[in-house]
């Protein structure tokens, strides 16, 4: 008996049933909602200059000697002199604190194929001085150098009353971002809707510090000129607007 027609009929029925359960190729699935569609993202920056009212300078004394005890003793003598000179120059306005003390071995550079040889020890002591007499910064630097400081970093200028400047910087940043958003919306022929997302960032910068290291006595004789300049408060704002078509 020839069963080919029945097999063919069964196969066609199975294909027809499958077509009723599986979407046809090329059919469009519902597109999920993209939360980032229909928005404009803009960023704005605002900066305000603030006159500094304090300065921070670090004075250091580095001493090398054959033994750690000898280096430490000599370092302590020099640092005591530096602290006394800073206090005389800065008076009650000066805030001093130790920010670093280190003892480390010093090795002589070895010859080829030879081990390093211990040469001695280096003792480093650093103090931070915060000072508010902006016209006498150079005098404070010279006092520390004349007393024996051989490592100086700074000055770093600081400002306390920055709340108003920060608020103004944020206002400027928001206005800048809003103006950009309006320009983009106008070019696209759409209207701005509500703000959906806001991110902010606040930073600041002080005038470039003067850095000096291992100054000798001849360099220290000339009076050190220091100009405070202006600190800058910078605010950054990113706004996300909904687009109204």
* Proportion of helical residues: 25-40%
Mean pLDDT, all residues = 81
Which consecutive residue ranges, at least 5 long each, have pLDDT under 50?
A: 1-36, 208-220
Strand order of the largest sheet: 3-4-2-5-7
- Tell me the radius of gyration: 36 Å
- The total beta strand count reads 8
How would you sum up the global shape? Answer: elongated
Structural class: alpha+beta
Strand composition percent = 35-45%
Question: How would you sum up the major sheet?
Answer: 5 strands, antiparallel
Cα-to-Cα separation, first versus last residue? 71 Å
SSE order, one letter for each helix or strand:
HEEHEEHEHEEHE
Given the structure, what is the number of helices?
A: 5
How would you describe the overall organization of this protein?
It is a single chain. This protein has 245 residues and is of the alpha+beta class. 33% of the residues lie in helices and 38% in strands. The protein is built from five helices and eight strands, in the order αββαββαβαββαβ. It has helices at 4-19, 68-90, 137-147, 163-188, 217-220, and strands at residues 39-50, 54-65, 95-108, 117-131, 151-158, 191-205, 211-213, 231-244. The strands form two sheets. Strands 3-4-2-5-7 form a five-stranded antiparallel beta sheet. It has a three-stranded antiparallel beta sheet with strand order 1-8-6, with helices on one face. The radius of gyration is 36 Å and the shape is elongated.
């Amino acid at each position: 008996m020839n069963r080919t027609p029945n097999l063919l009929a069964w196969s066609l029925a199975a294909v027809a049933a499958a077509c009723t359960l599986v979407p046809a190729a090329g059919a469009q699935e519902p597109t999920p909602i993209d939360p980032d569609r229909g928005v404009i993202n803009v960023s704005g920056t605002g900066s305000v200059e603030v006159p500094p009212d304090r300065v921070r300078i670090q004075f250091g004394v580095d001493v090398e000697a054959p033994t750690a005890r000898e280096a430490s003793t000599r370092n302590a003598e020099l640092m005591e002199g530096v602290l006394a000179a800073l206090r005389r120059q800065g008076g009650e306005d000066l805030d001093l604190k130790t920010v670093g003390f280190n003892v480390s071995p010093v090795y002589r550079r070895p010859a080829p194929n030879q081990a390093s040889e211990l040469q001695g020890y280096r003792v480093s002591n650093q103090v931070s001085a915060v000072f508010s007499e902006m016209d006498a910064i150079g005098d404070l630097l010279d006092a520390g150098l004349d007393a024996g400081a051989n490592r100086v970093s700074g000055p770093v200028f600081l400002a306390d009353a920055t709340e108003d400047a920060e608020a103004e910087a944020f206002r400027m940043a928001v206005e800048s971002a809003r103006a950009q958003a309006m320009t983009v919306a106008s070019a696209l022929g759409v209207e701005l809707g509500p703000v959906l997302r806001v991110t902010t960032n606040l930073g600041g910068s002080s005038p470039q510090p003067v850095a000096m290291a291992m100054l000798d006595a001849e360099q220290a004789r000339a009076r050190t000129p220091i100009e405070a300049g202006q600190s800058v408060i910078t605010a950054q704002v990113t706004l996300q607007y909904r687009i109204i078509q």
